[in-house]
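Lab notebook page, bench 4
Experiment: in silico fold of construct C2
Operator: M.H.
Input chain length: 412 residues
Purpose: comparison with the prior construct
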Amino acid sequence: MKRWVKMIRLIGGLCLVTLLGIAYVSYLCHNSLCLAPERSNLSPRYSVISSSSSSRSEILSSPTSMVKLISGFPSKVNIESVAFEDAYDMGFDITSRDVIVFLHIQKTGGTTFGRHLVRDLNLENPCNCPRKRKRCDCFRPNTVNEQWLFSRYSTGWKCGLHADWTELTDCVEGALDEYEGSSRKRRYFFITVLRDPIHRYLSEFRHVQRGATWKSARHWCGGQEFTSLPHCYKGSNWTGVELDEFMNCSYNLAHNRQTRMLADLTLAGCYTGYNTTADQLERDRILLQSAKQNLASMAYFGLTEEQATSQYIFERTFHLDFANPFDQANATLSAQAIAELTPAQIERVRQLNSLDNELLEFARHLLQERFKMLKRRDPHFRRNWFRVIHPHKLFVQSFFLARKKMKPRFRK
């Protein structure tokens, strides 16, 4: 009996000492000064999968090397983004928590590509696109409101008109939670389309000349909306603007638009001092490096000038086929527009989009690397490639092959 009493007293004494120790440490560490740093401060805001490719290793440096920036803005983005090789290895699971997020850059052919996504994918449960309605319901099988596609033609502009990389990564999780009425973690497959910078710039100029403004764009960055960005025009729009006037506006967001929309703008102070020349070279370097890094970490990107290659890469990456092929748009109109320009104007357009030109060269090399890798791994490459470039011929061949295999029937 005495032994049990001693044991109880010993345990009680140890508990008392522990409680006193906790109280003492809590007193010394007032206001959580002794707590370990949060995990979010120890890791980058998104993951970039390393690759043996030399072109990628040049730009996929640690994000900490990019944070000596111009009045950088804090960011607390914490989403799971799937890179290209992981997307290929794991595939896209439409029945689980995977979401394709389409970053739609103006005048890159994104409208056509966006329609392909909602109307032409061969799915057991395709998107429901009611007549006389712009948007489609791209719900997961056996669900009534869970979206597997985040784009203009499925969810609408939930993160703002033509939301860029900075806006989408900060907004997409909350926007889907609100849309679906519940909070859940998802895997995001970011995709985009790029275009030759000169052709894209002139296309945007023509669009603005006809009255387009995109005034409702949010320009959300670093936890705030930049609503005071100056306009290049007075009145409601810039209808009838001439090219020289369009180019001479120093704060025209058409300049190097693709680089800006793919970069993490918080690394360069968002839109603070966007129109100034102070540290412009450093800002450009940061934005270009960030845009390359984000493009390389995306699950997929295509090029407007490489429709067949882009379609093949999408289909093999996501293990999904398109019922209708991508059409290679005729460049006659763009070529005609360029032919009407003076050599000085062409050079000026090229200078204003120098970052986009460098980004496109990087994208071309990366696209070819991905194509060659997928080609090597595709045991049915010739058939899959032939189906992309000659879809109608393959259908005819399959039809006659099926008829040839049918056994003839004779009437008695």
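Observations: The domain at 78-394 is CATH 3.40.50 (Rossmann fold). Residues 99 and 119 are 17 Å apart (CA to CA).
Next step: discuss at group meeting.
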